[in-house]
Amino acid sequence: MTIANWCVLTACLLPIFTVGLAKANSAKSPANDGRYDNSNPRGWADQLTGWQQRAISAQNNGWEALPLFIAAVVLAQQSHAEQGRIDHLALLFIGLRVLYIGAYLMNVGTLRTLIWTAATVTSISILLLS
């Protein structure tokens, strides 16, 4: 597998990791007072506040960012673009997404938007290699 392919896998796992933070934090809560409810996960998510609520939003945005990134990597590789360049940009995308999650959890909106924009431009840059 190429580095870019590993980045695709990482991008697919990042949203799961992000919501896992919120779920793990809820393990400290009493059973009927904020603890993650596997029988009603959406209801549990709806009652969250603060950084846990932002973790859910970051997770959702992670899923939204995936199609463009995956398509960009696949199309660039299928067109035999320079693999080193694809790999470099894919690593940049992952780094930006990690920073995005951090900015979202810390509630730094303007920085988060700038990072989101940079990650989207990175995906488009990969796509343009094709």
Please describe what this structure looks like.
The chain is mainly α. The protein has one domain: Four Helix Bundle (Hemerythrin (Met), subunit A) (Up-down Bundle), CATH 1.20.120.550. The protein has helices spanning about 5-25, 40-45, 50-80, 85-105, 110-130. It is elongated, with a radius of gyration of 17 Å. The two termini are about 20 Å apart.
> What coarse outline follows from CA principal-axis ratios?
elongated
CATH architecture descriptor: Up-down Bundle
The radius of gyration is 17 Å
Per DSSP, what share of the residues sits in E-state strands of 2 or more residues? under 5%
Number of domains: 1
> What's the mean pLDDT score?
94
Q: What series of H and E elements makes up the topology? A: HHHHH
Low-confidence stretches: none
CATH fold-type name:
Four Helix Bundle (Hemerythrin (Met), subunit A)
How many strand elements?
A: 0
Number of separate helices: 5
The largest pleated sheet is described as: none
Helix content: over 70%
* Helix-strand makeup class: mainly alpha
Within CATH, the superfamily carries the name: Membrane associated eicosanoid/glutathione metabolism-like domain
Distance from N terminus to C terminus (CA atoms, Å) equals 19 Å
Q: In CATH, what is the class?
A: Mainly Alpha
